[in-house]
Amino acid sequence: MQGNRGPQQNRGPNRPGEQLKSEGTNSNGQQPEPNEQTNPNEALTLDLQSFRKPGEKTFTQRSRLFVGNLPTGVTEEDLEKLFTKYGKASEIFINKERGFGFIRLETRIIAEIARAELDDTPFRGRPIRVRFATHGAALTVKNLPEFASNELLEEAFAVFGQIERAVVIVDDRGRPTGKGIVEFTSKPAARKALDKCSDGAYLLTAFPRPVTVEPMEQFDEEEGLPEKLVNKNQQYHKEREQPPRFAQPGSFEYEYAMRWKALMEMEKQQYEMVDRNMKEAQEKLEAEMEAARHEHQVMLMRQDLLRRQEELRRMEELHNQEVQKRKQAELRQEEERRRREEEMRLRNEEIMKRQQEGFRGNFSENREQDMRMHMGGHGMPMNRNSLGGSSGPAGTPGLAAENSPMLPGPGNNSMPGGGQGGFPRGLPGPGDYGPPNKQRRF
After folding, report:
1. Torsion angle, alpha carbons of 116, 118, 121, 125, to 10
2. Could you report the per-residue pLDDT of 140-170, keeping only the tens digit for each?
3. DSSP labels for 263-292?
4. What is the pLDDT at residue 57?
5. Would the CA dihedral through 157, 158, 163, 168 be positive or negative?
6. Which of 189, 232, 337, 421 has its CA 20 to 30 A from that of 245?
7. In whole angstroms, what separates CA 122 from the centre of its chain?
8. Strand ranges, E, within 59-121
């Protein structure tokens, strides 16, 4: 027996609703034996780790699903239970009046699996519709430079807010098309980027080519429009009166088909001409911009050279002023030193002159006064010639009188009669003279 796993060569993957129907019977419509029954929870498990890419961002807008045609009375808990197989959801919203809701799963791949398995499956008697929700914070970037990359695009628009995805669109050969997609995590960030870049002045690289930013047009390129979803009104029946066919030559349909073809060819030629003119204008603008950039760089270098020359001239002036000030200071110091030396020399000469004059005057006055005092004390008349002050040669009479013994008197033991002695032999020294009014003791 095969249990509940019948042949499925011409069918898609089992859906939850179909499996719930086949739980009670096997492929032959008979009740399965107890040992052949399987646990539904084990069949509804996914290894979520195998559907995660390294470094992939989780719970983004790209993994947000729209669930439509919900039965009346469905709650958020019921919708969460319906998507339990696909992991824990981060956002669940239900509009009970209009019968639709939103749910955000962990990754894009898990959301694709959930959409493929749950779309058009019965849920409480009604087939539900599962689609990817439109990304309200996605922007289209045009006029990208040739060497723009996904990382450069993300770095350029990260200044406006947190980014979920940034992609540079390439053709089938891997060549960039000049367009890209930037998806933000929030609508305010997308509106801010749209407002800031609307003036066409935002640059991504050193090459000054501004990018243009527009709201991204949402297209369903995977599911499209099935026949069951087409609105079958009167126009629908009128267009479907005849099946698809080829128009026969010479018929009315063939004539107007050729006219439509000619119109489309003319439109194609006009677009090609516009593209060619735009490319020529872009090349011309790039050449002019390159020449202007070179001229601008030359002008900046010239201005920088003039500025440096002005700074050098100013520095030379300051240096010359400093040298002049230093020389003037040295001259002033030299003049001051010479003046002080001159003053010192004059002062020393004056002091020496005064000392010489004072020594001569004091010596003669002190000697004369002492002689007067001594001579007056013995009752002898004072004679200048007796002191050796005569104008005779070598003062011989004075010296003889000076060397002669004094009158005898008391107090002099060396002379006969015990009298007071006279002056000692030789001239007296400077220390032998005291003040004028004081008698010197011998």
Report:
1. -170
2. 999 898 888 999 999 999 999 999 999 999 9
3. HHHHHHHHHHHHHHHHHHHHHHHHHHHHHH
4. 81
5. positive
6. 232
7. 58
8. 64-68, 91-95, 100-104
Q: Are strands 100-104 and 122-123 parallel, antiparallel or unpaired?
A: unpaired
196 CB-near residues (< 8 Å, 6+ apart):
160, 202
Give the percent of the chain with pLDDT over 90: 39
Beta bridge partners of 169: 179
Q: Give the model confidence (pLDDT) of 94-113 as tens digits.
A: 998 899 999 999 888 999 99
Tell whether the model's pLDDT for residue 298 goes beyond 90: yes
Spatial separation of the C-alpha atoms in residues 66 and 381, rounded to whole Å: 156
Please return the burial class of 231, using the count of CB atoms within 10 Å of its CB with bins 0-12, 13-18 and 19+: exposed
C-alpha span between 82 and 337 (Å, rounded): 108
pTM over 0.70: no
Q: Cα(319)–Cα(70) distance, rounded to whole angstroms? A: 89
Q: Do 137 and 61 contact (CB within 8 A), yes or no?
A: yes
* Token reading at 319: 């240096």
Q: Cβ atoms within 10 A of the Cβ of 176, count?
A: 16
**Residue carrying the six token digits 């929870």:** 41
Residues 278, 178: Cα–Cα separation, whole Å:
14
Q: How far apart are CA 131 and CA 14, in angstroms?
A: 19
Q: What is the pLDDT of residue 429?
A: 52
Which amino acid, residue 337? R
Using CB atoms within 10 Å of the CB of residue 114, give its burial: 0 to 12 exposed, 13 to 18 middle, 19+ buried: buried
What pLDDT does residue 180 have?
94
Q: DSSP secondary structure string, 419-440?
A: ----PPSS---GGG---TTSPP
